[in-house]
Amino acid sequence: MSKDECKQVVLDIIAEIAPDEELSDVKPEVALREQLDLDSMDFLDIVMELRKKHGIEVPESEYGELVSLDSCAKYLTPKFNALV
Amino acid sequence: MELSRIVITGIGLTAPNGNSLSEFRQNLLDGVAGIQRIEMRYMGEVLAGVCDFDPMRYQKRKEVRVGTRAGSISIYCAREAVADSGIDFDAFSKDRVGIYVGITEHGNVETENEIYNISKFDYDTKFWTHHHNPRTVANNPAGEASLNLKVTGPSYTIGAACAAGNLGLVQALQMLRLGEVDLAIAGGVSESIRSFGIFAGFKSQGALAEHEDPNKASRPFDVDRNGIVVSEGGALYTLERLEDAQARGAKIYGEITGYHVNSDATDYVLPNPERQTQCMRAAIKKAAIAPSQIHIVNTHATATPMGDIQECEAIREVFADCPETYVNNTKGFIGHAMGAAGALELAGNLPSFEDGMVHPSINVDQLDPKCEIPNLVLNKPIKAKRVDALLNNSFGMLGINSALIIERVSD
Questions:
Q1: Residues B115 and B53 in one domain
Q2: Torsion, Cα of B266, B270, B275, B276 (10° steps)
Q3: Using H for helix, E for strand and C for coil, what is the string for A20-75?
Q4: Which of B60, B66, B126 faces A41 most closely, judged by CB atoms?
Q5: Contacts of A24 (CB under 8 A, 6+ apart)
């Protein structure tokens, strides 16, 4: 999986948990919560969907790695690639 | 002590046969029921009353996803009631508003969903949602409404089995009289059709209705009745002190002049007509009127064989020699809306103050002789000589009884 593909996976999850948000111009380097109406419960939904849909575990101590699309891609892409 | 007079100034509702008072009322007068077959987890098809209001009218998609069905019903009904009241809600002090939502139960739906969810993951609880607790706390339906309407006054639910709709209104009356709030949004809601446990429980009890025609399944007083049709729905009212409503020139649907709540203390599920009689009489006494001055009695009767007979016994006793008192029932149209039942059924009768019509109980092809009551309105509406007061019965499991009396407010 490429980093761009990984970003799309995260965006697909966000589209489900925050269906009122416009996601076409999300800036990958900017914190997600600075540009989208996401609260802490939504963030936990992202973690849950990664677990349910993709078998990816994000320990609580590493939640900070999911702050932006870029950081998500950097942190999650190796995890996705380790699955195959 | 002179008690404040409390009046109803707005109504918001959703029922299986209508999403506004006018639509609901018209269908009650036209004999239009709203029961259908739905697929129930583990059970196959069951009969249910399903509401088709649009939650997106007042909620964002994310709020619907995160919240509960009971929350959505509360929000829809509360917003509709506030709009109907004509009050300048934006300018109203939100810390002087209270929300009191009657519920039969809450949390079954969400808990069942979550157990089903983790069953797909070998019952590993790390897949259990973090939304579970805010969804299942007992105050959820009122809390979601308070979030949506930005109400900061006291907002909570009243758990009272199927008497809950009336009890929401009683709580509102008491809080207004105590001066704790200046505007109350109150009534009852139910999301019960999304819980297989409710249906399976009634089925195991031998109290779940079945009929080849869904709209014939709920048939209180009919000799062939065979149980309850479970429904969802809600009805919330705005209530104010009479002087406040008059000062702003509000439309006044009626005044709560009497109420009573008591407990059977006899059985988990079987009703007690003696306590029902006491409850109605105590409400009438508080209203300081005679039984003959009540022109409509809306029965709770759910179409269980014993329950209907026992309520009829109680009504025969309280309303003996009351030639202008008519008796009706709403559940033939909409099934049993559980926590919403009392509040919804009251709404169906309130327009009688204006149009003088009494809607019927439907699906009574052959009246059970044990349910014969003078002036029981069957299958077709009738025009009453006058309608100045109505009594609304709502009873629930564990032996909770409630009766509410609403009177016309003269100009």
A1: yes
A2: 170
A3: CCCCCCCCCCCEHHHHCCCCHHHHHHHHHHHHHHHCCCCCHHHHHHHCEHHHHHHH
A4: B66
A5: none
pLDDT tens, residue by residue, B238-271: 999 999 999 999 999 999 999 999 999 999 999 9
Judge: A19–B131 Cβ closer than 8 Å, yes or no: no
Q: Same structural domain for residues B105 and B202?
A: yes
Contacts of A20 in chain B (CB under 8 A): 60-62
User: What value of ipTM does the predicted structure carry?
Assistant: 0.94
Instruction: Give this prediction's pTM.
Output: 0.97
B374 & B267 share domain: yes
Of residues B61, B127, B131, nearest to A51 (C-beta): B127
Q: At CB < 8 Å, which residues of chain A contact B?
A: 17-20, 37, 41-42, 44-45, 48, 51-52
Q: Which of B56, B61, B65, B114 to mutate to test the interface with A (most CBs of A within 10 A)?
A: B65
Q: Which residues of B touch A51 (CB under 8 A)?
A: 126-127
Q: Kindly report the average pLDDT of chain B as a whole number.
A: 97
Q: Phi then psi for A77, rounded to 5 degrees?
A: -55, -45
Answer yes or no: is B205 within a domain.
yes
Read off the pLDDT of residues B48-89 as tens digits, 9 standing for 90 and up: 999 999 999 999 999 999 999 999 999 999 999 999 999 999
Query: Which structural domain, as residue segments, surrounds residue A71?
Result: 3-83
Residue B55 shares a structural domain with residue B88: yes
Question: Is B37 among the domain residues?
Answer: yes
List CB contacts (< 8 A) between B65 and chain A: 17, 19
* Number of Cβ atoms within 10 Å of the Cβ of B131: 18
Contact B220, B228 (CB under 8 A): no
Question: CATH no. for residue A27?
Answer: 1.10.1200.10
- Based on the domain organization, do B51 and B107 belong to the same domain? yes
Which of B60, B129, B131 shows the shortest C-beta gap to A20?
B60
Residues B11 and B124 in one domain: yes
Question: Looking at the complex, does the CB of residue B133 fall below 8 Å from at least one CB of chain A?
Answer: no
Into how many domains does chain A fold? 1
We report the CATH number of the domain holding residue B16 as 3.40.47.10
- Is B132 near chain A, with CB under 8 Å? no
